[in-house]
């Protein structure tokens, strides 16, 4: 099989490429240049896509003796991931840019180019597994990335490979060291790759500007002013600009955001509980939509709590009733459905949360 290995310059994608070489596939490595200013996107373990990362990927390719290229996807990444991230926050939503990158860059734009060039599959270092065409959680549950891959269609999964999903991260590092790969001890990237400073509020503020509004309590009383709803997300406790706890002496959290009026509402932890979710743009990873209510397990954050639920597709919307409430669910997040079998590791599908109640 002729495969294109997406090589970020990290240990995971490096070992993934190496395993495909060992398996006898015809492997070509490619590093995606996603930043329009690549010299600025790594600070220690923060950020990615820097010149340092491209160099690390090239050195691994040399060790593996495979062809290596750098493909410039910076403009498309800026439009489909960064611009989407900014506009989503401006609407009072909380998006996951890793989900959008997988959906629109790695397994859409990159895969399309790979298939056009005659490759059979795109290989990545994601911690997930494919079994009989079904997307499943990784063996290493702490590193599992099936959540951020749950937006992929059955067609996209047919042309994907995740060679390291069956191995714990510690063993991946040890394997990289045995292979003589210099990235064996390279720190994992954290936070949002295109915000190496880690200051999301400042990043958004520089792009959205000042859009003043009010912080109000559950009764509508104004508690403080703010410079824009992009500085808040549902469930946020710190940085609210209000003095002290609520009247009951308990901490206050962001419970609702109205971007149109610029209003950020705060309340108690109990006010964060939701029992129903509505999702749009549903994707079912096996390629078949359910015909009625489906018992499932739901996850709404990459490493968040998993709760039992019932999901049903109505038209082009996915309605989910939770058996146990979740807290701090925000529009723009991705809800992922898992099959509630003893293993609980098969992904059924996903949708973008439009509302929660």
UniProtKB/TrEMBL annotation:
One GO cellular component, as annotated: cytoplasm
The site feature described as Interaction with tRNA is recorded at: 126, 333
Which keywords does the record carry? ATP-binding, Cytoplasm, Disulfide bond, Nucleotide-binding, RNA-binding, Transferase, tRNA processing, tRNA-binding
Tell me, what does this protein do in biology?
Answer: Catalyzes the 2-thiolation of uridine at the wobble position (U34) of tRNA, leading to the formation of s(2)U34.
Q: Which residues form the active site?
A: 101 (nucleophile), 193 (cysteine persulfide intermediate)
What class does this enzyme belong to in the EC scheme? transferase
Record organism: Mycobacterium cookii
List every stretch annotated Interaction with tRNA.
143-145
GO BP annotations, alphabetical order: tRNA wobble position uridine thiolation
Q: Does the keyword Disulfide bond apply?
A: yes
Q: Which family does it belong to?
A: Belongs to the MnmA/TRMU family.
- The segment(s) forming the tRNA-specific 2-thiouridylase MnmA-like C-terminal domain are 277-353
Its localization reads: Cytoplasm
This entry's Gene Ontology molecular function terms read: ATP binding; tRNA binding; tRNA-uridine 2-sulfurtransferase activity
Q: Which SUPFAM superfamilies does the record match to this protein?
A: Adenine nucleotide alpha hydrolases-like (SSF52402)
Domain tRNA-specific 2-thiouridylase MnmA-like central, by residue range, is 202-267
Report the protein name in the record.
tRNA-specific 2-thiouridylase MnmA
Q: Which reaction does it catalyse?
A: S-sulfanyl-L-cysteinyl-[protein] + uridine(34) in tRNA + AH2 + ATP = 2-thiouridine(34) in tRNA + L-cysteinyl-[protein] + A + AMP + diphosphate + H(+)
List the EC numbers from the record: 2.8.1.13
Q: What residues bind ATP, as annotated?
A: 6-13, 32, 125
**What's the short name of a Pfam family annotated to this entry?**
tRNA_Me_trans
């Amino acid at each position: 099989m002729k495969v294109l290995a997406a090589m970020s310059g990290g240990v995971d994608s490096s070992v993934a490429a190496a395993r495909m070489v060992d398996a006898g596939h015809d492997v070509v490595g490619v590093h995606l240049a996603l930043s329009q200013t690549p010299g600025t996107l790594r600070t220690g373990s923060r950020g990615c896509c820097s010149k340092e990362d491209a160099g690390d990927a090239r050195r691994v390719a040399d060790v593996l003796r495979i062809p290596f290229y750098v493909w410039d996807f910076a403009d498309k990444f800026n439009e489909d991931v960064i611009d989407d991230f900014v506009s989503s926050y401006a609407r009072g939503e909380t998006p996951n840019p890793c989900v959008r990158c997988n959906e629109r860059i790695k397994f859409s734009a990159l895969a399309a180019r790979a298939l056009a060039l005659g490759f059979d599959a795109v290989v990545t270092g994601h911690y997930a597994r494919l079994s009989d065409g079904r997307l499943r959680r990784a063996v290493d549950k702490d590193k599992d990335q099936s959540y951020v891959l749950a937006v992929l269609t059955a067609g996209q999964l047919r042309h994907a490979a995740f060679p390291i999903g069956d191995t714990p991260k510690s063993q991946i590092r040890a394997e990289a060291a045995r292979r003589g790969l210099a990235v064996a001890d390279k720190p994992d990237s954290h936070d949002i790759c295109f915000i190496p400073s880690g200051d999301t509020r400042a990043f958004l503020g520089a792009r959205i500007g000042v859009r003043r509004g009010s912080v109000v309590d559950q009764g509508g009383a104004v508690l403080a002013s703010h410079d824009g709803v992009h500085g808040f997300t549902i469930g946020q406790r710190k940085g609210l600009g209000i003095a002290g706890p609520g009247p009951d002496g308990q901490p206050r959290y962001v419970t609702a955001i109205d971007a149109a009026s610029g209003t950020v509402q705060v309340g108690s932890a109990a006010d964060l509980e939701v029992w129903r979710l509505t999702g749009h743009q549903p994707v079912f990873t096996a390629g078949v939509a359910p015909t009625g209510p489906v018992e499932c397990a739901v996850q709404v954050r990459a490493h968040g709590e998993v709760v039992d639920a019932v999901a049903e597709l109505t038209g082009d919307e996915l309605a989910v009733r939770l058996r146990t409430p979740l807290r701090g669910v925000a529009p723009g997040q991705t809800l992922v459905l898992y099959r509630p079998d003893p293993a609980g590791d098969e992904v059924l599908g996903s949708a973008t949360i439009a509302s929660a109640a």
